[in-house]
Write a structure and sequence with these properties.
Layout (H helix, E strand, L loop, with lengths): L1 H12 L3 E2 H8 L5 H9 L3 E6 L2 E6 L1 H10 L9 H21 L3 H4 L4 H12 L7 E2 H7 L5 H11 L5 E4 L9 H6 L1 E3 L2 E3 L1 E4 L4
Length: 195
C-alpha cells in the first residue's frame, strides 16, 4: 500500500519530492525495498541528494496512477484508504466527463515554480535575481497570484525580498515589477537554500 501511496502523492504534487517532503506531506518516506521496487519497475526515479533521496514519477508511473483511478479498493485499505479510492473513482468520472487528463489536473504549486525559476536565473544560491526578470520568466502567472506566492515565500528564513540599494539604477520596468512588503518596494529575490 505504501508504494501506491507514494505514486499518488508524487502524482498529486507533480514534482520531485525528497523523503523529508514526503514525510511532511503524507507521513511516510520512500526507502528500502519499497523504493527499489518502484525504481526497478520504472515507475519512480530516485536520485541520491547528499545522504537522502529525492523521488520523481516517471511517465510509466503516471500511467500506473491513471490505472489506480479504476482500481478496486485494496482489501486491507482501512477507512482512509477506502475513502481515497472513492475519491479516485470520482476523479476518473470527472476526467471522463471533461475530457481532462491527470497531467492537466495536477500541477506544481506556484511557490515551487518560483523556486525553480530562481534556480534557473540565479548563478548561485543566495544571489539576487531582479523581480522584473523573475516576472518575465513566469509571464504566464497573473501578477496578483505571483505577488501572493512571493509574499508567502518571504515568511521563510532562507528567502529574502530586498529593495535595490542603488535606487538610481532602477528602470521603470524594475519599479513596476517591485513587490510592496511592509510599505517598502522590494526589487530582488534571493533564496539561500535553493539548490
Amino acid at each position: 500500500m505504501r508504494e501506491r501511496a507514494a505514486l499518488l502523492v508524487l502524482m498529486a504534487e507533480a514534482r520531485e519530492l525528497t523523503n523529508a517532503e514526503l514525510r511532511e506531506l503524507a507521513g511516510f518516506t520512500l526507502d528500502g525495498d519499497c523504493r527499489r521496487r518502484l525504481n526497478d519497475l520504472g515507475l519512480v526515479i530516485s536520485t541520491k541528494v547528499g545522504r537522502a533521496y529525492a523521488h520523481d514519477l516517471t511517465d510509466e508511473g503516471a500511467v500506473r496512477c491513471q490505472a489506480e483511478l479504476s482500481a478496486p479498493r485494496p482489501a486491507r485499505a482501512g477507512y482512509a484508504g477506502g475513502a481515497l479510492y472513492v475519491l479516485l473513482a470520482g476523479l476518473r468520472r470527472h476526467l471522463e466527463v471533461t475530457g481532462g487528463t491527470l497531467g492537466g489536473l495536477f500541477t506544481p504549486g506556484l511557490g515551487h515554480r518560483v523556486e525553480t525559476a530562481y534556480r534557473v536565473l540565479a548563478p548561485r544560491p543566495g544571489d539576487s535575481v531582479a523581480l522584473r526578470t523573475l516576472r518575465e520568466h513566469l509571464d504566464d502567472v497573473p501578477t496578483d497570484r505571483l505577488d501572493r506566492a512571493l509574499t508567502a515565500l518571504a515568511d521563510r528564513p532562507d528567502v529574502h525580498l530586498r529593495a535595490e540599494a542603488d535606487q538610481k539604477s532602477l528602470t521603470e520596468p524594475d519599479r513596476q515589477a517591485a513587490l510592496v512588503l511592509g510599505g517598502s518596494p522590494r526589487h530582488t529575490l534571493a533564496i539561500e537554500a535553493a539548490w
